[in-house]
Write a structure and sequence with these properties.
Helix content of chain B: under 10%
Distance between the termini of chain A: 37 Å
Radius of gyration of chain A: 13 Å
Oligomer: heterodimer
Shape of chain B: globular
Strand content of chain A: over 45%
Largest interface: A-B, 27 and 24 residues
Number of strands of chain A: 11
Shape of chain A: globular
Strand content of chain B: over 45%
Number of helices of chain A: 0
Largest sheet of chain B: 6 strands, mixed
Number of helices of chain B: 0
């Protein structure tokens, strides 16, 4: 069974640009969550999608958005990039919505560098 | 955002030694999770704890859900080189939006063969 895949693995952008990251969950998983990982802040929850609807949201500005397609694949978009957006963006999938007794499986992440 | 207090921040040990790390919170959690992240990979779940006082093992790893529900511990016995990586604690708070997983900043483990 294939794991969670994320594309691209590495990305370099400049300030002011926008970027779209993609995540394909494990087959049969309907929930996709996105996290931002930085050395200083650790893993910070961005949002969760389930059945094409955003079900939960972290404390990030509106420049960060996402969507989920009918096949459960998800994309996240960051507009007007800032230097502080440089991070590893992780996607996690689970069978149903995140909660106790429901394991999340993580992809390898997309390393975004903003110059 | 909210974070868990995880310590130590880093450890450098000799192969064969035992390792202990812990995670604390000022509020009650109803689930504690321990993950390991290898370079270039996403975190992988090692142990999940769901009840206060629960002690769970996974091979050489043992984790405990603190009685106060505000802390958790992870022990690794007889460390080997492949134990190298970053270990994260995470949990679901008892109160509030308990669908948001809260994370510690990680313990970086280095093992000297």
């Amino acid at each position: 069974k294939a794991g969670v895949t994320q594309t691209p693995r590495y990305l370099i952008k400049t300030r002011g640009q926008q970027v779209t990251l993609s995540c394909s969950p494990i087959s049969g998983h309907r929930s996709v969550s996105w996290y931002q990982q930085t050395p200083g802040q650790g893993l910070q929850f961005l949002f969760e999608y389930f059945s094409e609807t955003q079900r939960n949201k972290g404390n990030f500005p509106g420049r960060f958005s996402g969507r989920q397609f009918s096949n459960s694949r998800s994309e996240m978009n960051v507009s007007t990039l800032e230097l502080g957006d440089s991070a590893l963006y992780l996607c996690a999938s689970s069978l149903v919505m995140t909660g106790a007794n429901n394991e999340q499986f993580f992809g390898p992440g997309t390393r975004l560098t903003v110059l | 955002g909210q974070q868990l207090n995880q310590s130590p921040q880093s450890m450098f040990i000799q192969e064969g030694e035992d390792v202990s790390m812990n995670c604390t919170s000022s509020s009650i959690f109803n689930t504690w999770l321990w993950y390991k992240q290898d370079p270039g990979e996403g975190p992988v779940l090692l142990i999940a704890l769901y009840k206060a006082g629960e002690l769970t093992s996974n091979g050489r790893l043992t984790a405990q859900f603190g009685i106060t529900r505000k802390d958790s511990f992870l022990n690794i016995s007889a460390s080997i080189p492949s134990d190298v990586g970053i270990y994260f604690c995470a949990g679901f708070p008892y109160a509030g939006n308990n669908r948001k997983l809260i994370w510690g900043l990680g313990t970086s483990l280095a093992v000297n063969p």
